[in-house]
Design a protein that fits this description.
Elements lengths: L1 H22 L7 H23 L9 H41 L4 H28 L1
Amino acid sequence: MFSFVYIAAFIVLITICAGIYIYKGGKLINGRRFFKLSISSFAVLIGAFLIMLVPGIAKAATPNDQSKGLGYLAAALSTGLATIGTGYAVGSVGSSALGAVSEDPKILGKTLIFVGLAEGIAIYGLIVSIMIFGRL
């Protein structure tokens, strides 16, 4: 068990040292290959941690448990996808609004309305999640 911790700490230290080396102006020969290797090793170690630390996770589910699990998944997806959409919308609308306001400062109020409408997407996702949790 502790060997996984030592391996993870070693990989983290190597990644940090490589990042500092690259930041200081050094160049790695295969920087992309190193990045892919680092990410894949993190994924394998996280999987190993989950398997070892949570041994009772793989149990048979009753039909009632399965529907609750799907409800939690639906709530997570509604909130997560809504916030991803909000981030995309606010990014594009906000940058356009900033450019428009820099040309004509009188339209600031109108641009704030558009940014607020884009942020409303996340609120709708949160409301749907709360309604799903109310049904569980």
